[in-house]
Specification:
Helices cover 40% and strands 16% of the residues. By secondary structure, it is an alpha/beta fold. Helix 6 packs across helix 10 (295-313) and helix 8 packs across helix 10. The longest helix has 21 residues, at 87-107. It is globular. The protein binds uridine-diphosphate-N-acetylglucosamine. Uridine-diphosphate-N-acetylglucosamine binds next to helix 6 and strand 8.
């Protein structure tokens, strides 16, 4: 049995990582500020040690990284538009929190840290699919903060021998993704509108594309990244490797829902990337990664979950 620290483990992706680790019988500690994470996401698990704290605050990272073998670092304030509106707050959480974590992991001799980065670091590039050899071109503070995290990961390996791997997620979706804020992921917002009979908003013409990735795929890729022998110091895409427009996505979701209002179109969002699709060959090569669940197959359990939440809270 190995011991894992999952930062942001009470959040959407984090709680799925924790679920998988628990089902494998591993020892799991979670640190979460509970700003966007929720205790309820872990309520069904009995053997998880939950420490409530902000990694950007002094001493928290040091305490939580004691006696752990592997760290999956997911804690962050997500959302491209939120980072445009709140660059200082998000920088503190996403950059200072990450730096404090690497520093503590080095001091406490963690075996490997897997850092959750983002497809947003690519920005707008003429070539699709996007591969790791392409230059980064961050278009928002969020993208820049994730790129800095990757660079710190590399630097900590070079300077201090801390084993780090960065995985770039592409538009992850699934049960437990919180739809309650205007900054929430688009699939969660569409699902909420469909279950409540409201019209969703589409920014721009809806022909922008994304590589929507069901959460089980990134859980698998991330846990592979904890152990893959040749992955140290590397950065790799973890996603489905496909892309779909927002208009097509909403049509698909409407079909699952068996109805739904027409979308309302409004101006494109500042900092938005036009097209996004990953080349996952590096993750295939280094991690033995293969996407497990397609967009279509992931939408069904996702929609069911949002429906069950509406019934709960009605
Ligand atoms: C970006 C990153 C992603 C990262 C995420 C963190 C890219 C390509 N992806 O996602 O890797 O994990 O930030 O938050 O940069 N939209 C609507 N209506 C809505 C909400 C969104 O039309 O109500 C549109 C957005 O304008 C965007 C698309 O849907 O074009 C996806 O938006 P969102 O789900 O917020 O994710 P990204 O910003 O693409």
């Amino acid at each position: 049995m190995a011991s894992y620290l999952v930062t942001g483990g009470a959040g959407f992706i984090g709680s799925h990582v924790v679920d998988e680790l628990c089902s494998r019988g591993e020892r799991v500690r979670v640190v979460d500020s509970l700003v966007t994470g929720r205790r309820e996401n872990l309520a069904h698990l009995t053997d998880v040690e939950l420490m409530v704290g902000d990694l950007a605050a002094p001493d928290v990272a040091d305490e939580v990284t004691r006696d752990v073998d592997f760290v999956v670092h997911l804690a962050a304030i997500p959302s491209v538009p939120r980072s445009v509106a709140e660059p200082v707050t998000t920088n503190h959480a996403n950059v200072t929190g990450t730096l404090r974590l690497f520093e503590a992991a080095r001091r406490n001799q963690v075996k490997r840290v897997v850092f959750a980065s983002s497809s947003s670091v690519y920005g707008n590039s003429p070539t699709l699919p996007k591969h790791e050899g392409m230059p980064a071109n961050p278009l928002s503070p969020y993208a820049l903060q994730k790129l800095i995290g990757e660079q710190y990961a590399r630097l900590y390996l070079e300077l201090h021998g801390l084993d780090t791997v960065s995985v770039r997620y592409f538009n992850v979706f699934g049960p437990r993704q919180d739809p309650s804020s205007a900054y929430s992921g688009v699939i969660s917002l569409f699902a909420k509108c469909l279950t409540e009979g409201q019209a969703p908003t589409i920014y721009g013409d809806g022909e922008q594309t994304r590589d929507f990735t069901y959460v089980k795929n990134v859980v698998d890729g991330t846990l592979r990244a904890c152990h893959a022998p040749d992955a140290a110091g590397r950065v790799m895409n973890v996603s489905c490797g496909d892309r779909v427009s927002l208009n097509r996505l909403y049509t698909l979701m409407r079909e699952y829902a068996g109805g739904g209002q027409d979308p309302e179109y409004t101006a494109p969002r500042v900092g938005d990337v036009r097209d996004s699709q990953a080349d996952v060959s590096l993750a295939r090569e280094l991690l033995g990664y293969e996407p497990l669940v397609s967009l279509a197959d992931g939408l069904a359990p996702t929609m069911d979950w949002y429906k069950s939440q509406t019934v709960h809270t009605a």
